[in-house]
Amino acid sequence: MLVVAGTVPDPDYPLVCGEVLLEGAHVSVRGARAEVNRGTPALLAAAVLAARVLDRPGPTAWLVGDTGLGRGSRRLYAQLAGSPGPQGVGVFVFHYLQPDVDWHDRVLMAVQDLPGPPRLVADAGFMYAAKMSGQAGAYDLFTPDAGELAFLADEKAPHPFYTRGFVLHEPERAPGHIARAFEFGNAARCLLVKGAVDHVADSRGVLAVIDEHPEEAMEAVGGTGDTLTGLAAALMDSGLDTVRAAVLAARANRLAGSLAKPTPASQVLEIIENIPRALSAVLAEADLEKA
Amino acid sequence: MGIKSLFGLGSKADRKGVERGFLVFENTSEVIRAERVLRESGRRVRVMGPPPEIRTGCDLVVEFALMDGLDVLRELEAAGVAPLDLVPVESPLLKPVDMYQVKDFGAQLMVRAANMKITVDKSSLEIVNVSGGGCPDVPFLAGELAGRRLGDAPRPRDIGHTLCGYALDLAFEEIKRLCL
Q: Which of A253, A282, B83, B145: CA 20 to 30 A from A214?
């Protein structure tokens, strides 16, 4: 089972846990609807569609409203630290949550106590907290962009807003930053670095460079990193090892973007709609390569 | 207070797991007023002696939760006691990412500041996309800004709460400077 914990940018959105339904331009959990434009709802929409292609159950989500004050995140943290269930979690994704190292540590301990334990994915605010906690190595996958990779590479930075001058947010520096992030213990076991060129790496270095279907406009489209994380998590939940899942997710996300023929004004829903076709094509191609 | 020094670097969380920063003021009476304002709004702050690097004539600073920077700044400005600077607890001389990157797509212009990007249609001046960032106010801010004309949109620093919100404000001001 794939479980995702994240937030919805609506202060009145309740704390809910349940199966995620995709209803047009909205995701719904226990009747609480959220628009799919970016953030955790975009991740969930991508994961729902990927699960259909993979013939897997859709994701279960812990969601709460939070517009940046952190109140919703803290409610969710308290819930997860006490009872992160449900049972049978294979992959647990943490997403747009207010970074808080103390709560991070409590939630991580609770999740590591689950049977399995599940493989762990962190992106966005929770990835920031995971790095700052010094426990990045407890995670199976981080999905940073170039700026977030610079933050992981700078062992002193508490947030991507701060990186020291020598750690520049430049995509061409990705291999060096990846090495530095691993050197200082600030990387998950696998990194999927998203950008104009995607990199998949582990402690040995860069394992794959994915540059097919380049679409310059994708950088401007909010939510494309969220869909990538959702794809990777769904592929991990299908049983693939983390590196393989990351590579296929990058390829599928790029193809979905290309199929949408994006402009800088495109919205992520236009890309999400192409995920089934793109993922099916990438999986078929991967099967051929294997054969 | 200069934009570049609005936030600083703190490499270690405090006992409650929250990154801490120092508010630096012109004089001690401002420190005391600021402490009262922030305590009255329910914030956990402490008055402390500053590290040597940031001594500016006042021998006290207010320690606060760095992630709350925008909210704290707003409260203090509203109370007429804006700080001279906000700096990190651990490494006060380190500065935030200080660069804008501008990408011209032809019909649209994108500006990136730190980890946040904003894209505007050059002819209509409509904000067409907001991307990047990972704090929970990013999707909220994107929802509030996207679809609005640049001149009519609220400033991210007025409705955001986090460092990502502040980075978006830098990008927002820069793209306004370029487009308006």
A: B145
| Ordered domains of chain A (ranges, CATH) | 2-285 (3.40.1190.20)
* B128 in the same domain as B175: yes
What are the two backbone dihedrals, phi and then psi, of residue A123, each rounded to the nearest 5 degrees? Answer: -140, 165
β pairing state of B20-24 and B61-65: antiparallel
Q: Using CB atoms within 10 A of its CB, is residue A18 exposed (0-12), middle (13-18) or buried (19+)?
A: middle
Same domain? For B121 and B173 the reply is yes
Q: Which helix (H) or strand (E) holds A130?
A: helix A124-132
Domain carrying residue B170: 100-179
ipTM of the complex: 0.93
Q: Answer whether 0.80 is exceeded by the pTM.
A: yes
Which of A150-159, A216-225, B6-15, B95-104 is most confident? A216-225
For the stretch A176-189, pLDDT in tens is 999 999 999 999 99
Residues B139, A13: Cα–Cα separation, whole Å: 14
Residues B59 and B109 in one domain: no
Q: Is B60 helix (H, G, I), strand (E, B) or coil?
A: coil
Sheet holding B108-113, edge to edge: B100-104, B108-113, B116-121, B127-132
Say yes or no for a CB contact (<8 Å) between A156 and B166.
no
